[in-house]
Amino acid sequence: MRSVKDILNSTGITNKALKADLERDVPAPIPSKTFECSICQDRGIFLEGDLAYPCDCMKTKKRENQFRHARISRELMKCRFEKFRFDYYTQEIEDQTHREGATRAFNASQRFVEDCLQNPHGLGIMFTGPVGSGKTFLAAAIANKLIESKLQVLFLIVPDLLDELRATYKSEINELDLLDTARTIPILILDDLGAHNYTDWTRNRLYSIINYRMNEQLPTVITSNLSLDEMEEYIGVRTTSRIIQCSRIFRLTVHNDIRLQIYQERERKNK
């Protein structure tokens, strides 16, 4: 009887070639899956004996979804009442106007949150003032607190809103969806209502949102670097009138742009 080695040699098959063929036939090992959560392996629950428990990662995901649906950016999620710095408003000891205005706006922001938690219907709040005076910070701090308290919030940056409305110009369904959400959301925040390129069409859309919310007594938070006179010029008298009617208005001023102050602080630390 011929040995396997003799048969292979007679057919020209070497051990090396046979090994290569065998290796080709062996399926490649399947890489182990990487899970975002090592505790529940992304199932949302984990087992202890015969009992199943919800994993903490689901609470985190739910919270992230709430902020995403509210359109809060990662940067604005950092804005909290406890991080509000009054020292940005006290550049000169002789002039306390900046600090007093900031204190009134800060206290009103916290009262606004308390009022919303107790009653879904009521007055809104508007912050006016120059660029870099803390308006958006307070608006975002309000949004973050309300979201954490399980209230529905929508944070819209007005220039982006206008772009979205223009993009839906030929799509009536999408436009109605966007307008209806902005009109009916329990808490709406309109950030950066400024000197943008308004048309009659976009002015009418803004009016539709503000007028509906005023009539339904749904609170709206607005930030703007415009004076009331300038606001009438850009968005119209009737919309401005309704904003005044349904809002408490606070003006924030600052000696130096807060973003510039933050930049200067960072540069000093890096030296």
Topology summary:
Blueprint: H1 4-11, H2 15-25, E1 45-48, E2 51-54, H3 56-69, H4 97-118, E3 124-128, H5 135-148, E4 153-157, H6 158-167, H7 172-184, E5 187-191, H8 200-215, E6 220-224, H9 228-235, H10 237-245, E7 247-251, H11 258-270
Parallel strand pairs: 3-6, 3-7, 4-5, 5-6
Antiparallel strand pairs: 1-2
Quick summary:
With 271 residues, the protein is of the alpha/beta class.
Verbal overview:
With 271 residues, the chain is α/β, with parallel strands linked by helices. It has two domains: 1-68, no CATH class; 70-260, Rossmann fold, CATH 3.40.50. 51% of the residues lie in helices and 12% in strands. The protein contains eleven helices and seven strands. The chain has helices spanning 4-11, 15-25, 56-69, 97-118, 135-148, 158-167, 172-184, 200-215, 228-235, 237-245, 258-270; strands at 45-48, 51-54, 124-128, 153-157, 187-191, 220-224, 247-251. It has a five-stranded parallel beta sheet, with helices on both faces. A two-stranded antiparallel ribbon has the order 1-2. The longest helix is centred in the middle third of the chain and has 22 residues, at 97-118.
Residue share in β-strands: 5-15%
Strand neighbour order, sheet with most strands: 4-5-6-3-7
Task: Assign a percent range to the helix content.
Answer: 40-55%
Radius of gyration: 30 Å
The CATH class of the largest domain is Alpha Beta
Q: How many domains comprise the coordinates?
A: 2
Given as residue ranges, the uncertain stretches (5+ residues, pLDDT < 50) are: 25-32, 59-67
Return the average pLDDT rounded to an integer.
81
The overall strand count is 7
The chain-level structural class is alpha/beta
Count of helical segments?
11
Give the biggest beta sheet: 5 strands, parallel
